[in-house]
Structures are given as structure tokens and as C-alpha cells.
Amino acid sequence: MQHPAGEQPRTPVRVLVVDDEPGIVRALVINLRARKYEVDAASDGTSALELAAARRPDVVVLDLGLPDMDGVDVIRGLRGWTRVPILVLSARHTSDEKVEALDAGADDYVTKPFGMDELLARLRAAVRRAEPVGAEGDEGAAVVETDGFTVDLAAKKVNRDGRDVRLTPTEWHLLEVLVRNTGRLVSQKQLLQEVWGPSYGTESNYLRVYMAQLRRKLEQNPSHPRHFVTEPGMGYRFER
């Protein structure tokens, strides 16, 4: 049986929906199950963290306005032990609030009210970013070394000072695009579209947040980066 392109995951993907609005939960559960996703739901942060530990979802859809704790605290709780993609769903529209969620470890941000098609497209993109990359020939086997850290593109691993560095799927994807273009300027629009998808191009705050996170994790002096260079108004460049 042929399925429409992009409509269904190739293998069952488990989604954890966290929202205290029953109508939204019901709509998401119906739409996701219709597309063969497996779905768990929680109405508060405590239950969400417990379900995530017990059920190990492949992606989390998280409302920030929960009755028992702020959704940003749920993100931080998850990021303490898992790299699972987190898609924030929130009525908070300001840039500062989006940046706070992204900075805590979210992978994307959808504001309410939202279109179901857009949400599902962003969810699929988040899942794709987290998927292991298949064999890619010589390029996929490349190991890129700097004086401070090593990037293994095939194994999707980063090592700094003898220790593995834990990156979220979005942090890794951004790093991978930059490393594969070592020494070349990658425009903001190209980075956004390669990492988040073709419908992106103007969300420069996403890039500022994630570049800051990569610098904190990998640069010896994050405030004066040697490897992740900003070209103001144009984009970013990775230098060995």
C-alpha cells in the first residue's frame, strides 16, 4: 500500500503530547493516530516527565502553560537525560519567550492557534533531524578535528577533551551543516532551511540561540569564538 509522501512515518513513531487543554489533546491524538503514530498524552509537567521516562517517546509536543510547572522546566528536565526532539506548542508569542524555550533545549516552536498541517510538518521535520544518517560514502565517514574537539560525522558524535559532548538533534544538525561546509560562509537562510525545513528563512533568533549553545559546549572561549564565526547580517562559518 502506497502512502502519500511525508504523511506517515516509515516505522511507528511514538509521540508524547503534553497539554492541559482537552480539546487540543483530543485533536492531536486523533490526527496523529490517523497517520499511524503511537501517542501518549499528559496534562501536566509531572506526568509528562514520568511518561517520558517510562515510554521513551521519539518526539515530544509540549505546551508551555501547564498547571503544575512551567513548560520550560519540563524541557530542562527532559534535557537532563534525553536528546528526544521537543516541539513547543504555546500561546506565548514574544521573541524572548521563544528564545527561552529554545535555549532550554526545545527544537522548534509553534504558536497557538496553529494549523494541524503545519504542526504535523514540523513534527515530521523534528523526527527526521533525530534519525540516524545512513551510509554516505567517504563524506559520511569524515572525522573533522580541531585543536579542542573532534566531530565524527558518520557516528554523529562530538568529543571534547576525551569526553563525548551531548548535543540535541537540532544542535547536531546545525553543526553538521557547518562542518560539511568548513571554511565557507553558510547564509542564515540556507542554515534555517537545511536544519528546520524549507518553510523557514527569517527565524534568525533560532540561529542565535543554537550557535550560542554550540559555542558554550565546544569553544574554549565562547564569547570570542574561533571555530563558529558569525558574519554579521550574512550567516555563519565553521573554521578548524
In short:
40% of the residues lie in helices and 20% in strands.
Report Rg. 18 Å
Write out the CATH superfamily name of the largest domain: Response regulator
CATH class of the largest domain: Alpha Beta
Count every helix, treating DSSP H or I runs of 4 or more residues as helices.
9
Examine the coordinates and then state which fold CATH places here, giving the name of the CATH topology of the largest domain.
Rossmann fold
Taking strands numbered 1, 2, ... along the chain, how are they ordered across the largest sheet? 2-1-3-4-5
What portion of residues belong to β-strands?
A: 15-25%
**How many domains, in number, for the residues?**
2
Largest sheet: 5 strands, parallel
Estimate the helix proportion, in percent. 40-55%
Cα end-to-end separation: 48 Å
Q: What's the number of extended β-strand segments?
A: 12
Q: Provide the structure class.
A: alpha/beta
Categorize the overall geometry: globular
Query: Would you identify the CATH architecture of the largest domain?
Result: 3-Layer(aba) Sandwich
Give the SSE string. EHEHEHEHEHHEEEEHEHHEE
> Which regions are unreliable across 5 or more consecutive residues at pLDDT < 50?
1-6, 133-141
Average pLDDT figure: 88
